[in-house]
Amino acid sequence: MMVLAFALAICSSTDAFIAASFHMFPPAAKLAFLVFGPVFDTKLFFLYGAVFRRWFVIALAIGLFLTVGIICLQLGLVLNV
Q: Fewer Cβ atoms within 10 A, N terminus or C terminus of the chain?
């Protein structure tokens, strides 16, 4: 779901409507979509690249991906959803 959020690069206010239409995914995956999309998407990748060095942008993407994924996975396990 986070890869889809990165690729779509849609407005953060419409993310909720898009995520609500994903009936086949668990709530933890929808949460990851909602959190990761506004923080790091395609257009932000290029904007971050204009300000920061390339290695930092790649490290930021990997770090955010892992952090959001682990937190949402843990929430999914704790809440049993």
A: C
